[in-house]
Specification:
Porin, 9 strands, alpha+beta, globular
Length: 188
């Protein structure tokens, strides 16, 4: 399949690898290292996978685990990388989840969590999902409230991978809102 038919996968792959790479390979804790390593592994799997048609998705429900990252649209790199867990109900075409266990780009623990809610997906050849994204995280520039949306899709022979591209506003008390972009890649 050509690049032009897989833009969501390509953007997710590039975004997640770039976010993980921003942390460098310094002496951060093993937890950051394991999340960074998992991000790279999942991004490579996603890069090799084709989109999953609706007819090939499993039935019932499934829990997907993986990684979630956000980077702020600021003059200097500022972001968080953490764990993600998304529950998918294939009977009702819905999904929801949570991201937490964040680390900032200096590989320091960062408090907060982000909720993925009201997710619905539909499609034929390529499944597209939309969800709300909200919560807060402690960035290097301070605690920010996250409010945005996600566009998601499935990949692999039977939808064993799910990826979402997120974007919106990150606000901080007493400061102007800044935009953010992010991505999740999770696997069944």
């Amino acid at each position: 399949m050509t690049f032009s038919t897989r833009p969501h996968h390509f953007v997710a792959f590039v975004s997640l690898v770039a976010l993980a790479a921003c942390g460098g390979s310094g002496s951060g804790g093993s937890s950051f290292s394991s999340i960074e390593s998992r991000a790279e592994t999942l991004a490579q799997k996603l890069d090799r996978a084709d989109p999953t048609p609706m007819a090939d998705l499993p039935s019932g429900s499934s829990t997907y685990d993986g990684v979630f990252g956000i980077i702020l649209d600021t003059d200097r790199p500022d972001g968080v990388l953490g764990d993600a867990r998304i529950d998918v109900n294939f009977r009702s075409n819905t999904f929801s989840g949570k991201a937490d266990n964040f680390y900032n780009l200096s590989q320091q623990r960062a408090s907060g969590s982000v909720t993925i809610s009201d997710g619905r997906f539909d499609g034929d050849e390529e499944v597209i999902g939309i969800a709300e994204v909200s919560g807060s995280a402690q960035f290097e520039s301070g605690r920010r409230t996250i409010d945005g949306i996600a566009v998601a899709t499935f990949a692999g022979d039977d939808g064993e991978l799910m990826t979402g591209i997120v974007g919106g506003d990150a606000t901080r008390s007493g400061a102007s809102a800044v935009g953010f972009e992010g991505v999740w890649i999770v696997e069944d």
